[in-house]
Amino acid sequence: xxxxxxxxxxxxxxxxxxxxxxxxxxxxxxxxxxxxxxxxxxxxxxxxxxxxxxxxxxxxxxxxxxxxxxxxxxxxxxxxxxxxxxxxxxxxxxxxxxxxxxxxxxxxxxxxxxxxxxxxxxxxxxxxxxxxxxxxxxxxxxxxxxxxxxxxxxxxxxxxxxxxxxxxxxxxxxxxxxxxxxxxxxxxxxxxxxxxxxxxxxxxxxxxxxxxxxxxxxxxxxxxxxxxxxxxxxxxxxxxxxxxxxxxxxxxxxxxxxxxxxxxxxxxxxxxxxxxxxxxxxxxxxxxxxxxxxxxxxxxxxxxxxxxxxxxxxxxxxxxxxxxxxxxxxxxxxxxxxxxxxxxxxxxxxxxxxxxxxxxxxxxxxxxxxxx
Length: 372
Known about the structure:
The protein is of the alpha+beta class. It has helices at 2-9, 18-34, 102-114, 132-137, 162-173, 205-218, 239-244, 263-279, and strands at 47-49, 52-54, 58-66, 75-83, 86-94, 121-127, 180-185, 191-193, 196-200, 222-226, 250-254, 294-303, 308-312, 319-320, 325-330, 336-341, 346-352, 356-357, 362-371. It is built from eight helices and 19 strands.
């Protein structure tokens, strides 16, 4: 009976693998049968995120409130909690960290309509627009409220700028409650981007391996192997890395760009989420993981050394040799002040598609691809 008690009270190892959890559940059921009892499925308790509480088998929407402070007006973060009728993982999906990245925002609108919590195991937290000031202000990268990039200030500060307070609230109310986190992005309003995901390898080994499973399950064939994320939980910088440094498998994906709302980019995210739900055992019938991933072991963001106008001379998805001209920057009178070249041979994963450029900002992203 001691061994049986330990078995029944052991927490399911969601971050290790779905099959491990299934084996544990089957063993528990067999032990109860041998003891002459009928296995019972535990009814999940209500699930709460901020002011939003969802009972088992229900979906509830609401807003997280970021109070005004220091002269700013504060903001709200629209969320939905889909709480399954059966126990399982807690998957947090965040969109709109950058306000002009529309494909993920529209994909979560669709998911809210399509997801049936009564048939779900576990819970899905949807953050529909993380950065409402940037979304409503139609700004790339930076918030119009404080000039900060939300995805560079995590885990945030409770008494900081508006962006820092948004990050703090998301860290406490969303990331802290999740078992898995996927940050949904696309190219910003100025970025022409091919789809890919980031697999972060700087966490604990079991977290890294579980994150690899998320990347394969999402289904994008280009996967950037990201080895350079910070390891300090108090200075995690990025939303997905905030989860990783807290022992939660996480993933960042990119699908879409240039402020477009094209069907292919949105559907690609819908397909990826369906793959995640199947992979985590939350719902059946989803697509299979990508069979032939292209691993990007080396990558580099190319940054502007001058302010002015950027003229691209290569295209997203193009294979480039070392030294290939990616584009050039002119001053405001048309004189070329910088030529941007590929630092190594690889594929152009994104390139800036609009003229304005500021010194230090990205102009493109090159990755060296290796097929699995």
